[in-house]
Amino acid sequence: MATPKTVEIHSNELQGIALTPTVPSQISSTTEKPCSPPHHHTTDPGQELLKKSDRIPNILPHGDLAGKPDHCFGLYETPVARSVWAIDTTQRPYLSYLKSISEGWPHITWLADFMEVGTSPLKWKFLVKEDIDERAKRTRVAILDFSEDGEKPTRKDIQSSAALRELFSDHDFNHDPAYARLIIVEDLSRDVIETLGAQYDIDPLFFRSQVSDYLWYKTEDAWVELNDLDHVAAERNFFNIRYMRPRYFTTEKSIDDAKEELGTFNVLRRLEQDLSWRVRQMRKPKGATVGVVRSKTSLWLRRNKPGETGILGILIVDPTLREGYPLWGGPRNLQPCPSMHEKVVPQGPPRTTLFEDVIHYIRNMSKEDIKEIKVQPRALGITISTLVATEWKTVVSYIITGLTQIEWELEHEDYRDSIGLEGLLDRLHPLRRLIPVYHAMVDETLNTILNATKIHTSTAAGIHLRKLNKDFESILDDIKRLQIRTQNIIGLATTIISMEENARAMKMNKNLVRVTYLAVVFAPMAFVSSFFSMTPNLKDLTQTIWVYFAVTVPLTILCLGLANHRRVVKLVKWLSCDGPRVKRKEKN
Length: 588
Fold this sequence. Notes:
47% of the residues lie in helices and 9% in strands. β1 (141-146) and β2 (154-158) form a beta hairpin. Strands 1, 2, 3, 4, 5, 6, 7 and 8 form an 8-stranded mixed sheet that branches. Mean pLDDT is 81; it is low at 1-50. By secondary structure, it is α+β, with helices and mostly antiparallel strands.
């Protein structure tokens, strides 16, 4: 294990950050600008960080309340002493293993920190011991055992870390299943990672890639997770699938409550809203909106050692957000509609949590797919891949709906709300930013679990996986078309804005022309009147009034002629030519 290092920080910097919440709705996932950590101080960082902030167990990192994490973590500066949250690893061999390899594999350090804190290490300052202990013990596991005859797999639920340890230490529990076994885990916790990792010697990257949801990183982020080379990732025995889950929120408060609920997850998950910040500020009152939750799922397949014959897999799924509603009621039932002549209607998915839906569909796999798990272990990922594909289809449909509405408002000015054309552009910018990210996520899935070169099409399960590959390729094509369509709409909106601005400018120019004519008319009059006003005898004005008009009228005509000299020249040429005679001949 590497020796903990220290960092020098100013105590008044930490004490000056406002971290006390006023209402839960203030919790936000908005990213703050980084602050540079000070360099000159002799205070021990461990003692300084022991002055924790107020308890906010459900806070999301990188928000307004959480403040800037850069004063605690730095990739180039000396990092904070991890001794402030270090725990005893005597009875935790997997955690001890992670710490021992952190020097040579520094990207694993963040997983060790996650296990010690119980959640994202960025939340450590806002948690008390009770919060950390509760998160560390959190367990929701289901074990599905398959039989070679293709019958419905059996299910065993485990709701505590103590029960999981007890089961795994039971001599009657065979860790090498007779045929196949899938362990399904909701969320992640210290005890679950420790028990599974130590028992099956699992690659730490399997858990590391599941704990965060970052789409991009700043150059100072110590929690950066760099991608593997494609050929290296293709040889691994685990797969990580990133995707989005859309939800409908009726009010702004519902969105804030959803963000707070996401803070209860151990893994870091955040919400992307479909409208830009500027549009949300312009909408009064703030109404319903749609958000997509950054989601991940991971599947690990054991490489059998000598003496091991069964197929063993571990599937990790995210907790399901309770706040809000699944967009359009959620994906349709994946099973075909039963015949009207069937006496017993099959039970549909519970639609309560993703955890339960996955178990429902796996237990209803066809006998053919179950029988071929031995030949094609990736068949254990058919269900979750199908559910992810349905979520992507919903996201694509929603983007199409949004773009169609924007196009309609561009074509019909009466349907635009108070946000105007600039507001429409603001609604497009999040899509312009996120659609390429969606493209990368789908492409990753095609290159990992649905990699066509790794699928044996000679089996029914392989044919099913190849069909899923085609589905994801279709989704990828849809996203490419949406990306082009978004850029075209942005260009169209920009053009319309320019045209409307030009029309307004021309209208203003016409008004300026009228004002110019008035100035031309009254300027000679004002000049002459001021000239004649120099006489002290008012009786003389009655004698000179005719002189006023005799001078001002020709002078005004002369000024108008000079202002429109081009038209005057054309008129003179026309009069001097045969223009009038041609018109008289036409009349005759």
